[in-house]
Every structure is written in C-alpha cells, then in structure tokens.
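Hey team,

Filing this mostly as a record. A colleague (T.K.) asked me to run one chain through the structure pipeline before their review meeting, and I want the input and output archived in the tracker in case anyone asks later how it was produced. No errors, nothing strange. Just documentation.

Input sequence:
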Amino acid sequence: MGFFDFIADAGANLFKDDAPEPEITKPIIVHIQDAGVMTDNLKVKFAHGAVTLSGYVPNQEQKEKAVLVAGNIAGISSVQDNLILGTPPADVVEQEAQEIKAAKEASNTEPSFRTYTVKSGDTLGKISKEMYGKSSLYNKIFEANTPMLKDANQIYPGQVLKIPE
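Output structure:
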C-alpha cells in the first residue's frame, strides 16, 4: 500500500475536458477491469488528478496491476493504494474497519515492486539493459505490463512500468 506519483499528461487519454468528476470514475474502473483485475470489491475515487483505490483484490499481482493501470491514465497525477489482499469479510463493520486500517497503513509502506518511468528515447530493450544488464530480457518487462502494454514497441515518455525481479 502506498502513494504513487505519475505524470498526469502521460498515459491513455480517457477523460473529456468538460466531464464532471463523478462520471470519470467509471472509465477508470472499466480500464482497470479491462486489464484483467477483479473489480467486484474495488472502489475508485477521483479528485483533482488523484485516484484512490480501496477495497479488496485477490492477490498482489492484481493489486500492482490496478495501481499501474490507474496511474497510466492521462490526467492522473497520483494513486493512493489502500487495497487489501484477499476477500472481504462477511461482516460489514469488520470490512470497514479493515479498510480504515489499510488506509492508515498506506502512508507508511513502500511499494512491493520496482517501477521505471519511461524517458524520451527509451525502448523496452534499453530499459531491460539498464535494469538487468541484458537487453534481450525486454520481454520480461513486456509480460509484466500486459495487457496495459499491447505492443513492445509502443511505450511513451512518462509511462510507469512495473519491473519484475
């Protein structure tokens, strides 16, 4: 859990300039869902370029994917990760207590994965060379970022990529 900064001008352009904020949250959650994240117990709030993700996701991979997909949407400058791994408890009071606890812990935790912000002139091969010492391992980065990345040759400056170990 934690707070992740992104470049607001980079990413998929999902917002209309004149759309009111309540209508913006649906495209964010749909975009996350399209990336293969289970959104049944996921809540998305958007205000002033910041997205807050809360609720439950089944595993760490889906949690990381939700954060990266949300942050790589044009207009998003930060993502607050208050997601909890697992399934929500049957008791609503217990569920709310866990979500409040997760939000408090979020500000004190480091991300469990490395990220890389794409610079002008970068390729997945160049990033792979920098991260792993071998450009031939670019597919490892590509696979960790699908379906957000649809083509290994289409990355753009400001995009934040997950870098697997």
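Quick notes for T.K.: The CA atoms of residues 64 and 113 lie 8 Å apart. Confidence is low (pLDDT under 50) at residues 18-23.
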